[in-house]
Amino acid sequence: MISLKENCPMSNLERSLLLDLDIAKIKQLENDDWDYERVDIEKACLVKLFCESGFSEDDIKEYFLTGVNEGFNSAAKIKMLKKQRGKLLDIIHIKQNLLDKLDYLIASLKESK
User: Fold this and answer.
1) Do the beta carbons of residue 47 and residue 8 sit within 8 Å?
2) What is the CATH number assigned to the segment(s) 1-65?
3) Distance of CA 47 to CAs 27, 30, 79, 98, Å?
4) CB contact at 8 A, 53 and 88
């Protein structure tokens, strides 16, 4: 067994998503640590990545359930990942624009001294 806390620290939301998805074989130990098999660690780290990347709970469930009944469907998963990547890139561009404006303001104030 591998400790999840050491390999992929998770929030309560991320842990509850794993429980909801029924993808982890969870056993609570006396020291309140959680033990997982390697495949569970990989799935838990994906859940953590998806949460940090802005995926909704429904999106995360859909990702893991995509292809379960009809076999692995990487095309649908790639489409989901690319869509979220685009959203993140839009956010980055907005933040970069704000940084540029602040830098311009700082430079303008320095010049006016």
Assistant:
1) no
2) 1.10.1660
3) 19, 25, 17, 30
4) yes
**Domain range annotation of the chain:** 1-65, 77-113
The token pair that represents 82 in the structure block: 């690319």
> pTM of the predicted model, to two decimals?
0.63
**Cα separation, 69 vs 62, whole angstroms:** 12
- Residue 67 token pair: 């292809």
How distant is the alpha carbon of residue 5 from its chain centre?
16
DSSP reduced 3-state for 3: strand
Write the pLDDT tens digit of every residue in 37-75: 677 778 888 888 998 899 988 898 888 888 766 666 788
Contact 9, 21 (CB under 8 A): no
